[in-house]
Structure to design on (209 residues):
């Protein structure tokens, strides 16, 4: 019998905020609690969505307009939802995703003109799903950017927008946490990885059913 108490959790934050490490640790912790957790990520998380990812994270920063980006990220998200997230939740598995719709709200909706209304319209039409819990890793963009670029992953299209862009992103995520306090929680990420993990686990524990 699938568990009906499966949790859908997203991790969000600016580039280089350490989300990927924390998402992995959270999924491992949930599994260690005897739950069955799927770790996934956006853009990507399903074969078709990973193909769309390549179009989005590589190449010239000006390659896509913000409007086109919203559509591409949403196409990838729809595939991710259909192929990975929904089947896992229906099977009673927890889902931990490294980014979800809040990234589009902030990266596309609040940085290069005010496109939040367009993001919300497309989200309601095509996705209409929110995580049970969203943990936003909040940290100094200057430190985060150094980390992100140091990885030199070839997927630096968004890092290449520079520091003022990352500062706008941080403010955008903080505003989102204030707007949706029941779902979104800021986690202080200007500290050690272990302290961040502890803060995340403390928050998730309050939501376990
Ligand atoms: P990600 O793989 O999480 O990069 P990182 O590990 O560096 O944080 O995401 C790739 C980039 O895509 C990242 O710069 C954020 C951006 N992005 C958006 O602009 N909108 C979105 O909806 C998503 C999911 C990601």
């Amino acid at each position: 019998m699938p568990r009906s108490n499966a949790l859908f959790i997203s991790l969000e934050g600016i580039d280089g905020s350490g989300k990927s490490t924390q998402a992995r640790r959270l999924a491992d912790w949930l599994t260690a609690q005897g739950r069955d957790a799927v770790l996934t990520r956006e853009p990507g998380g399903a074969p078709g969505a990973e193909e769309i990812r390549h179009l989005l994270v590589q190449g010239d920063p000006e390659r896509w307009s913000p409007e086109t980006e919203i559509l591409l990220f949403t196409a990838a998200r729809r595939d991710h939802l259909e192929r990975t997230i929904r089947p896992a939740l229906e099977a009673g598995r927890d889902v931990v995703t490294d980014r979800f719709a809040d990234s589009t709200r902030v990266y596309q909706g609040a940085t290069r003109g005010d496109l939040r209304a367009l993001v919300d319209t497309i989200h309601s039409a095509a996705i209409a799903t929110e995580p049970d819990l969203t943990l936003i890793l909040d940290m100094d963009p200057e430190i985060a950017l150094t980390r992100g670029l140091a990885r030199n992953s070839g997927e630096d299209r968004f890092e290449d927008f520079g520091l003022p862009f990352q500062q706008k992103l941080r403010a955008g995520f903080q505003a989102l946490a204030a707007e949706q306090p029941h779902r979104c929680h800021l986690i202080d990420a200007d500290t050690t990885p272990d302290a961040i993990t502890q803060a995340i686990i403390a928050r998730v524990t309050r939501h376990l059913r």
